[in-house]
Request: fold
Amino acid sequence: MSLAEPNDTLAAAPIPAAPGRKKFGATVTRAAIPAVNGSLYAARTKIQPQAVRGTFRTVKWALLALTLGIYYLVPFIRWNRGLGEPSQAVLLDLDRGRFYFFSIELWPQDVTYVMGLLILAAFALFLMNAVAGRVWCGYLCPQTVWTDLFMAVERVIEGDRRARLKLDAAPWSVEKVVLRSLKHTIWLMIAWWTGGAWVLYFADAPTLVIELATFQASPAAYLAILTLTATTYTLAGHMREQVCTYMCPWPRIQGALTDEHSLNILYRSDRGEPRTPVKRATALRAAGRPAGDCVDCFACVAACPAGIDIRDGLQMDCIQCGLCADACDTVMGKLGRPGGLIGYDTEANCRSRARGKPPVSRVLRPRTVLYGVLVAGVGGGMLYGLATRSFTGLSVIHDRNPLFVTLSDGSVRNGYTVRLINKRPEERRFSLSVDGLADARVEVVGGTPGDMPVPSDSTQEFRVLVFAPAGTRPEASVPLSFRIADPTTGETARAQDTFKAP
Reply:
């Protein structure tokens, strides 16, 4: 087949769409018509993308290797935190209620940082979408990354697009069974290791690997691996583009975050139309008649992992991966024509070129500035909070019954449960003082207020009694301030409560 001839496996004859059933401005083809009359859903046609080479494909390979390398290898990175502390660089220790990220240690009380990280990720995603469309979906989304990996395995075992289509249409044979079995076995191995890598973030990775291999790990670990194995195998191996189109909410949200100046993968119709085969285009141009650069070869459609025709305009199914641009550039290179017929462009540029005006570029505009400021603000606030956060904490709970006790000498006693928090990897000794009540006397049951030890990276409860002498006791409740201090580091912490009296 020459480049000037349409691909007969893809060039389904267009037919008019039924009223109310037009798909995002795209022409509905016979392949999209339900197999059963009256059905509300179209029968899914398996998509077999063509392998391509080019700039976007190279970037996707590099990001795939980087992201998968991070995911699979990070649990094995070691980080020295001192004696008795976990040595895994990134660890979510559910037993101790700690999250370790290299030198950062977060406690359950630090949940605000987790919320801040989620907010930061949302604003960063908004910014990426406003600048370059669905660049996250096309290059960094886990569904895209694992689907790319699964399709690469499929391509190595079963061949490229034409070979896979031929294998799909062929009757079952020994060769087909062997190829399909090998493919699915490797898919399951990748999915299994994906689930295994996930549980390594929740326990010491080398130890857990040995326990898993010797069947000594907890049932929860095996259940988590089995669940993630099944979901990875199903989503990346079978559902593929269906996840992006029907399960993911982002395609329906992104329209509100983009505008005419957002970069998207677009077909430059001002240059490509009218579509004309190579030989006829030469004749038309010689006669002074218009002929576009698009030769209607359908290479862009064959390369698309979502199976859409980018020449029909922006569509919800498109993940902006750029593989159609690589396929088109390859064809243009063989024809001796300049590349870029399909590529990142803006709708404003398309309209500007159609009017014969110079290109328009507006990266800095109100929405991108706003998203950038929000990203910088949230990120800066989190960094400041991490840099200035205290490694000492204090909480006080007043006794509920009795609220106070009047002693025989007329003094009043209140009881409190005081919890001291030590977030450092060494034992610390604190002194306790109380402000707000004149001539108050403080006692620590089983200890002294001037020496209250707290083990490393832990909390410790103390029973504290506060006495108000008979001559100075209040007539009602008064605010009370508890203060602890570490004489070694100079760190302090305060907590407020009340002193109850008759």
About this structure: The chain is about 40% helix and 15% strand. The chain has three domains: 48-79+108-256, 264-354, 392-499.
